[in-house]
Amino acid sequence: GSNANALSSGLNVTGQISLSAAMKAKASPNDAVFVYATPANGDRMPLAILKTTVSQLPLNFTLDDSSAMTPERKLSTAGEVLVKVRVSKSGNAMPQSGDLTGGSEGPVKVGSKDLKIEIKDQMP
Questions:
Q1: What is the pLDDT of residue 9?
Q2: What is the model's pLDDT at position 93?
Q3: CB 103, CB 87: distance < 8 Å
Q4: Quick count: other Cβ atoms within 10 Å of Cβ 103?
Q5: Most CB within 10 Å of its CB: which of 6, 46, 91, 120?
Q6: What are the beta bridge partners of residue 42?
Q7: What is the pLDDT of residues 61-70, one digit of tens each?
Q8: Which of these, 33, 77, 79, lies nearest to 59 by C-alpha position?
Q9: Where are the extended beta strands (E) located within the chain?
């Protein structure tokens, strides 16, 4: 579901997610991959989220209001967000030990294009 309005206003975040060489060995093609944006103010509830699998990496992604979890909390109104990626063997939305993670270096403005996010860490 792409929303023409969201696209024309440019209030989305796009980029590419890749898996570092070191993490490729730790991931299986069927592992779930969650890509999500949280407000830069530290609120942990994602504004937008999408789910894919490791077999789709490297992935060009777009987070916008159509990927919002709740209609009241829209990516387009956030201003700045943190983009995070997590690979989960269990497919569980909650982070777990052993998950592989990556994310933006810091807050990015909504409207940012061509982010490069590498999954390169593993949760203890």
A1: 61
A2: 81
A3: no
A4: 22
A5: 46
A6: none
A7: 999 999 988 8
A8: 33
A9: 13-19, 32-39, 48-53, 59-63, 80-88, 100-103, 108-109, 115-119, 121-122
- Let me know: does 92 contact 41? Beta carbons within 8 Å: no
Tell me the chain's radius of gyration from C-alpha atoms: 14
Structure tokens at 65: 């209001």
Using CB atoms within 10 Å of the CB of residue 34, give its burial: 0 to 12 exposed, 13 to 18 middle, 19+ buried: buried
> What is the three-class DSSP state of 23?
helix
Q: Which residue has the tokens 């993490």?
A: 23
Identity at 24, one-letter amino acid code: K
Contact 36, 16 (CB under 8 A): no
Give the per-residue pLDDT at 44: 87
Q: Which residues pair with 36 in a beta bridge?
A: 49, 84
Spatial separation of the C-alpha atoms in residues 116 and 10, rounded to whole Å? 18
Instruction: Give bridge partners of residue 51 from the DSSP assignment.
Output: 34
Compute the average pLDDT of residues 99-121. 96
The rounded mean pLDDT for the chain is 91
